[in-house]
């Protein structure tokens, strides 16, 4: 077959000078791949902390950082230097490509880490969903900053009704993420009298978050870690300085150690390839497509089917923005895009009108045609405070990977809590309920069960601009509604 002519596993090489040192293959370096989404209320310090992680692992040198600091100071945001680093990964800036979710790659002791920066504004929820669709775990950033002009700190503000802390927690849970590192950030401004790094403040936040996360279904004892940290000063990202007040009461893991303790999702390199199209535009006589591989492996020169339309093309060029790797020539065949990687492909002789966001590339037409579905069963979590309940037969918009599609919940099978069934065939679903439902989509979509391919089996449901529920696909159904 065509794949047998390719080099054996472990001999992959990424091209481009920077790519060689920045991103030698995970298999040969012995690191496991982990996609981590950084969640949290706007301004709680997600970008700063992400930038600090990159800096700690020397992906960004001090000089570059100072340069960014100066240009940021010039526009009045002196402490945004790390955010700036995060938002403009080299390859993306050069190619002028903007991704829906900022990504950056960095190696920790155990993982080849992809950081996904979730925009923190409510309007960006669909983009958050796109990021979540490939995430293994989440870092939830909550600010411990105490405010002098109010009896509420930033944490409380993110945690009240409509705060994004709670919305992001539910999104993560509904989409099947079960491991969370809660980065209790801005500890330098968690004041106790004149001193920052207040132990009482840290413990107060843990005390509030713990029952909340438990109630939302997280295994707090085993899968949730609370880490006090300062993205701005860098305390407890990689080390704690001896003079820091934190060292007097904290001896737990650093943020990087907590991240290293996370378990990566098996990435199924051996399984047949799936790559989600996140963007596509016309280029010469073909299409330049941005994709994210979620399963299997993709190489230059391979034939791909663009589903659900079924057009076939030979991959003519691959650019991996996060590493700067470029493959165009014949010996670039060794360039391999692995699960979790985003890449830009050139697909010659393809009509741009026949490629769209949310389409899926596979190695063979037959492979995915069987998964172009209109019906499936799913487990969903209805969000808090949705107002009008969800009624059987309501039309909602499903957001999945990089696409959206109108859907109808044509059957409400049951509501449940843990293993206990609360109601069979309920007529409505109210805020906070968990339910099994049957869904029919307006058009045929490339979906999979969550078990088969996480990214293609998790979705969010919106009504207008409001996110009302999220869920995972349990089983695919035939067009007559029967299970197979
Ligand atoms: P995002 O919106 O969550 O990405 O937040 P940013 O990273 O853009 O940070 C928002 C603001 O909080 C900026 O002014 C940062 O300088 C500030 N900030 C972030 N982390 C810390 C921290 O650990 N300590 C302090 N004092 N300020 C921080």
From TrEMBL:
Main localization, broad class: plastid
Localisation: Plastid, Chloroplast
Family label: Belongs to the TRAFAC class translation factor GTPase superfamily. Classic translation factor GTPase family. EF-Tu/EF-1A subfamily.
Domain Tr-type G: 31-267
Domain of life: Eukaryota
Keyword annotations: GTP-binding, Nucleotide-binding
UniProt name for this protein: Tr-type G domain-containing protein
